[in-house]
Specification:
Length: about 350
């Protein structure tokens, strides 16, 4: 059983996941490429290679745990946290610990192997976003759990162990320290100014324009003023809302378009880099917060975090966000641009549109 242990100095909780040590290739360098003959457990037809699905958006007439799905959610085979059990909070001398209760799920974003989130049709991305929302709504009902973090790892540098496009959801019984720091900082601004700092950022970036990558009716995508990493891009809703799971349908449709555009720009401009994106959202046990604003952070992995960054908390970014945004704005995305076509040719065929599904 995993367990959570608290650092008594800075208040950071750490997951001690004993069972993840049994994963293949642990503590070994990941290969730079994947053998083409390797059987992928996430491909359509290999559903018996994963745990039984939790949720799937399927074509009419298809059966659970079989072909015919568009997006599929399964438990992580090597979970950081487990849904079974009680929290069992207790002291350990001066330390605090609890059982590693939570959820760890994998969202398989397409049945096709040789695609990326950027090259998926927008209707498929909408399905993924609805799945994100559905899983948060469902797990929010569990009173033991307080925060859900949706994230995606792409490429060796982004921490991905499988190349088939997928993202993950980890739900914890405590608020992660990075989320707590965001909430605390935004609350301080709100108490001083009486406004949401994220709303102010959207308004200022739209007015200044030089760091904006894409502006749509519901979202502004921009390289933040104090970007930690080259080409770091935030996607922030214009309407104030603290919880991602409250996203309305028009915003889902628009966010699918924005993510398609932003990820395509990054893949084409930076030659398909490793990257992460994280959906930052408020804890389950906090109702609508006037000072906090959900958003998506996209972080290309173009530089290494080394001793100075770990020791100081400072980040060294060699690309000013103004230059990064200007560069990305110039990248034009067509319905079928050469980058998409080339990547699809290597997969043996062009992507076929999937039937859209709005829960």
């Amino acid at each position: 059983m995993p367990e959570l242990r608290k650092d008594p100095i800075v208040g950071r909780w750490v997951i001690i996941a004993h069972e993840r040590a049994r994963r293949p290739h642990d503590f070994k360098a990941e290969p730079t490429s994947h053998a083409q003959s390797k059987v992928c457990p996430f491909c359509e037809g290999n559903e018996d290679m994963t745990p039984p699905e939790i949720l799937a958006y399927r074509d009419s007439g298809s059966r659970p745990n079989g072909p015919g799905w568009r997006v599929r959610v399964v438990p992580n085979r090597f979970p950081a946290l487990k849904i079974e059990g009680e929290l069992d909070k207790r002291g350990d001398g001066i330390y605090d610990r609890m059982a590693g209760v939570g959820a760890h799920e994998v969202i398989i974003e397409s049945p096709r192997h040789h695609v990326t989130m950027a090259t998926l049709p927008e209707e498929n991305i909408r399905d993924v976003l609805w799945v994100y929302r559905d899983r948060l709504v469902d797990l929010k009902r569990d009173r033991r759990l307080v925060h859900g973090m949706l994230f995606k790892n792409v490429g060796e540098g982004g921490g991905a162990s499988l190349e088939h496009t997928h993202s993950q959801l980890i739900v914890t019984p405590i608020v992660p320290i990075s989320v707590w720091e965001e909430m605390t900082g935004s609350l301080e601004f709100f108490n001083y100014r009486g406004r949401c700092i994220y709303c102010d950022m959207v308004q200022q970036e739209a007015a200044v324009e030089k760091r904006v990558v894409l502006d749509t009716p519901h979202f502004t995508a921009f390289c933040p003023y104090a970007s930690r990493f080259p080409f770091e891009t935030w996607i922030v809703p214009k309407a104030h809302e603290s919880h991602f799971e409250n996203i309305p349908k028009p915003a889902v449709d628009d966010l699918a378009h924005v993510m398609h555009q932003v990820l395509n720009k990054l893949e084409l401009a930076l030659d398909a880099p490793s990257y992460n994106y994280i959906v930052h959202t408020a804890p389950f046990d906090h109702s609508g917060l006037p000072h906090y604003h959900w958003h998506v952070e996209v972080i290309p992995r173009l530089t290494k975090v080394a001793g100075f960054e770990w020791g100081s908390g400072f980040y060294i970014n060699p690309v000013p966000p103004e230059h990064a945004a200007a560069f990305l704005r110039e990248v034009e995305i067509a319905t079928s641009h050469p980058g998409v076509a080339a990547r699809e040719r290597t997969s043996g065929g062009r992507p076929q549109p999937l039937a859209s599904k709005v829960p």
